[in-house]
Amino acid sequence: YDPRHYSEEVRGSELVVENGNALENVPSAEHDLAYPHRRFAPTIKSHAELLAASRAHYEMMNSRRSCRFFSTAPVPREVIDNIVLTAGTAPSGAHMQPWTFVVVSDPGVKRAIREAAEAEERTNYDSRMSEEWKRDLAPLGTDWQKPFLELAPYLIVVFKQTYGARPDGTRATHYYFEKSVGIATGMLIGAIHAAGLTTLTHTPTPMGFLSFILQRPPNEKPYLLLPVGYPAEAATVPDLKRKALSEIMTVV
Ligand code: IYR
User: Fold this and answer.
1) In 63-199, which ranges are continuous DSSP H helix?
2) DSSP for 201-243?
3) Which of 3.40.109.10, 3.20.20.70, 3.50.50.60, 3.40.50.1580 would CATH assign to domain 68-248?
4) Could you list the residue ranges forming a coiled coil in this record (predicted)?
5) Tell me: the pLDDT tens digits for 146-204?
6) For residue 11, what is the enclosing H or E element?
């Protein structure tokens, strides 16, 4: 009998926590004792509150758009710090937190990134991408030019750590780092939008130049590049539609 699994009961629309057993410092067979367990008791919402909160969050997130036109208006660094802290709350395999977010504001570094990205993208659009790919992208209006890499006040370059280092200097395996970094990046995008800023998931390919320009160690591989800032005053976005719930969800 483990009270952690049996202490909750749903009564009507209220979730009542019945058993207040202290769970501090419960040792776990599968883990070492680096993380003693503690009570987890977030505020419990009623069904009406859940409905209101989930709807408000959906509406807020549904107003997010990938925007390719950035204002040069400055953004406080502390806002970027909070956004990155939010991404860092993501769950990760064995809590290895296998991510590094490189925040670039230096104009010279932004220019170097733009030049390298545009050189790769020019080759992509000229010869590496298939005709089908270019047809599929045409409605979005992308091309090899990436002025946002210099205009946006910040670039956040997400790196995945394919392995890490333990405190004693030995190598730490990073489990499911692709999924972990993907989740963290999703949370980063949500945080940028929730803060009131705009971003774009830019995938310069190949991305090796980012490791070189940003001088990252060999265990880190570039994952995604996100310009962050205010949208330009005259910014436009393609008027695309999202799939309906019935197209993305099936209930068993
Ligand atoms: N990496 C290129 C091309 C590109 C590919 C896809 I799939 C997009 O959704 C958008 C762009 C670029 O960043 O322009």
Assistant:
1) 77-87, 107-123, 131-137, 148-151, 177-195
2) -B--SS-HHHHHHTT--TTEEEEEEEEEEPBPTT-------PP
3) 3.40.109.10
4) none
5) 999 999 999 999 999 999 999 999 999 999 999 999 999 999 999 999 999 999 999 99
6) strand 8-11
CATH 3.40.109.10 domain extents, the chain: 68-248
Q: CB count, 10 Å around CB of 234?
A: 7
- Distance from residue 196's CA to the centre of ligand 1 (Å): 24
Residue 16 has pLDDT above 70, yes or no: no
Ligand 1 geometric centre to CA of 122 (Å): 12
pLDDT, tens digit (0-9, with 9 covering 90-100), for 196-240: 999 999 999 999 999 999 999 999 999 999 999 999 999 999 999
How much distance in Å is there from the Cα of 143 to the middle of ligand 1? 8
Tell me if 203 CB under 6 Å of ligand 1: yes
ipTM here? 0.90
Q: Output Rg (C-alpha) for the chain, integer angstroms.
A: 22
Q: Is the CB of 120 under 6 A from ligand 1?
A: no
pTM > 0.90: no
**Single-letter residue type at 212:** F
Torsion over CA of 117, 120, 124 and 127, rounded to 10 degrees? 150
